[in-house]
Write a structure and sequence with these properties.
Helices cover 43% and strands 24% of the residues. With 222 residues, the protein is α+β, with helices and mostly antiparallel strands.
Length: 222
């Protein structure tokens, strides 16, 4: 099967042939129908990979204390080898898909079920059963369904913020998650202001978000 991977040591993306693994206990095997490219997360990982070793360290200073602790325990060269080996391992890109169940160990799923998952960009993937959610309404466009896991991040942010009707809220960042969070907050009839350092993003989404606010206000009046 085909799978998209990223090498963190150099930032190179490759489409590789990977083994089509059998289903393990606690996992469901799915065939990917649509997967969303998350420009913020995936671009961040690519840019990180393209940095030299010292830039990786300096730009992730919160992790440096862990490396220093490891050096004191295992020695400099042993720690550097472990860090380099970690960077040499390829990682899968992608985490929000709409898929079809091929094999499953879950009692809640069966072969042929339409599901949303946190699977990567790949023909097939093994997904933990609790991260493989059955779609009850199969009439929804599968392309839209593939945004479900990304949207769940926005909804979780809304829930833990504990904002309610009558509050004023702010969303910092108009990436894909920020835009979805802004729209969801507006749908709950909450006054929200969205920010971004990019004027291009602000201008691009300004009219769209304002039109949703106006529509919600009119419905609220009715």
């Amino acid at each position: 099967m085909k799978k998209l991977i990223l090498k963190l040591n150099n930032g190179k993306i490759s489409l590789i042939d990977a083994p089509n693994n059998k289903t393990e206990q606690g996992y469901t095997k799915v065939k990917n129908l649509f997967s969303v490219v998350s420009p913020g997360t995936e671009k961040m990982l690519i840019n990180f990979g393209r940095q030299n070793f010292f830039s990786k360290v300096l730009n992730n200073f919160d992790k440096v204390s862990l490396v220093i602790k490891k050096i004191s325990e295992d020695g400099l060269f042993s720690t550097l080898n472990k860090v380099q080996n970690k960077l040499n391992l390829p990682i899968e890109l992608g985490y929000s898909t709409c898929s079809e169940v091929i094999e499953t160990s879950s009692s809640k799923l069966k072969v042929g079920d339409l599901v949303v998952t946190n699977g990567p960009h790949a023909d097939y993937s093994l997904v933990k059963n609790n991260l493989c959610i059955k779609v009850e309404n199969a009439n929804i466009d599968k392309k839209y369904l593939s945004y479900s896991f990304i949207a769940s991040i926005s909804i979780n942010a809304f829930v833990i913020s504990q904002v309610k009707y009558g509050h004023k809220a702010g969303v910092i960042g108009l990436g894909i998650i920020g835009v979805l969070l802004s729209k969801f907050t507006i749908s709950e009839l909450i006054n929200v202001t969205s920010f971004d350092i990019s004027n291009e993003k602000v201008n691009h989404y300004k009219d769209e978000l304002n039109s949703i606010k106006i529509e919600k206000d009119l419905k609220n009046i009715d």
